[in-house]
Design goal:
about 425 residues, mainly alpha, about 80% helix
Length: about 425
Amino acid sequence: MTRDLLGNNTRWAAASEILQLISSTLVVLMVARLLDETSYGILGGVAALAAIALNLSNLGSHILLLRRGAQGEDLREAWSRAITVGVGLPGLLAVLLLVSKPFFQPDVDFEVYALFIVAGMPLFWLSELAVYLPVGLGHMKQATIGRFIVTVCRLGAIAWFALAGTQDLTTWAWANMVSFVLSAVLGIGYIWFTYGISPRFNRRAHEDLRPGLPFSVNGVTENINDQADRTLLLRFGHVDDNGFYSFGGRAIQFAYMPLRMLLRAHDSELFAAGKTGVTKAFGVAARLAPTAILLGFGSGAIFWVLAPLVPAVLGSNWSDEVVAVIRWLAFLPGVRAIQYVAGNTLSAADKQWWRFGATGAAAALNLGLNLWLLPDGSWRTAAMTTYVSEMVLMASLVALVFYWIRREANKPPVGADA
């Protein structure tokens, strides 16, 4: 029965990721084709800033929601806390980013900046929480329906942009904003209809600040590793280089889809096992690791081979430089497959601060190298600093998992004589 359930969940997880793949592919390709390298460079820099700020402010509300669902805690309490934290804090930080725009991105049009910041933080996060609640419960069919809602809204945004009289960055910013307003409202409504849980403010949500902080800061450090170079390329005036690099980074994200299908289908099982420690969680993760690594490197190899086809898809607005970007980044999914398996093992066993220690050190290394080298560098500089920090992070996470396994093995059993 359990095997049948896992197989069914895997199929629904695959369907969910395929939906996300379809919408993401169309969004990335259509927006890149209708914009030029310079406009895409601006979009990539602002979107990267929003992603980093979102991870700073959401306080791991999605992971706490997933864990509470997997461990059988009260759903109304879990949902209301996630909504309160996941909307309130990203909304507050979005306001602070708007006020401090002259420092972060002084040359970007304020309307474009504001629309992408607001859409990419509280609105996007609401629609994601509506998917994470069913995942935590192991209800992958319901999670797939939630993903379908988001997909329809994103496809509507693309249709609006493609059919608009003017295809510029401002038009896309408005279409993107409206799509996330709709997906947030419909996602919340779907959870209400399916589980009978209405959105409401939770006065005890502040109690999530402490347990959620390590997930949040870990997400920030992961995003610094992944996206800070895009914001800095734009900030240092390498706008066209950031266009190539941002598109390449977005394209390689599709290589993670098979890996995410595998890991998301087993999130509930992994977090349930982690309740008793790293060793049990690693028992689940070890079964997933060979397949995860194969999917990561295999998907990257496919992108490396297919990269020369990209300029023909994007059209005359783009040069062949984008091929080199994709090929440089094609090995990242394999490296991160190892990271995710090890890191998720620590998170499931409530060792998130240890995971943060590793990601924080790697992020500091990445940021330091970029601040030092990017002012006179290029997208190749950003790619090299990314690989250096990612390899350091991979080795650190694997070492931490085996450290905790040895520590638990040497721990005397409860009730043993002193």
